[in-house]
Amino acid sequence: MIESKFIGRQVIKKPTCPFCGIFIEKPKELSTRMPGEMPVGSCSCGAVYACDETGHNLGSAMIEALVAANRPVPKYLKDLAQAEQSDLADR
After folding, report:
1. Would you say residue 70 has pLDDT above 80?
2. Is 82 within a domain?
3. Which one of 2, 18, 80, 88 has the fewest CB atoms closer than 10 angstroms to its CB?
């Protein structure tokens, strides 16, 4: 039997969104990567997250997530939102 060095802690736990509880994917590097940027990702509910692998630049990770959240919304998502709003208005 293998002993765990972390008594009372789960060593492997899949990350979930704190807002909707869905499993989230690993953050990815942006295609427009600039020096100093961190990998970011987003959940289907709209939450955005960034990853600081060192754990020492949490402020920078927060700023990266804010910048990623304020990027322009793709046209197909705008069209989808408008279609949902018109469906709600028709009810």
Report:
1. yes
2. yes
3. 2
Using alpha carbons, list the distances in angstroms from residue 45 to 23, 31, 32, 59, 66: 11, 22, 24, 23, 16
Rounded Cα distance, 72 and 42, in Å:
14
Residue environment code for 29-45, b if the CB has 16+ CB neighbours within 10 A, otherwise e:
eeeeeeeeebbbbbbee
Of the ranges 9-13, 20-24, 26-30, which is most confident? 20-24
Interatomic CA distance for residues 19 and 43, integer angstroms: 9
Containing 11, the helix (H) or strand (E) segment is none
Give me the domain span that covers residue 70. Answer: 16-91
pTM of the model: 0.59
Cα 26 to chain center, whole Å? 8
pLDDT band at 81 (very low <50, low <70, confident <90, very high): confident
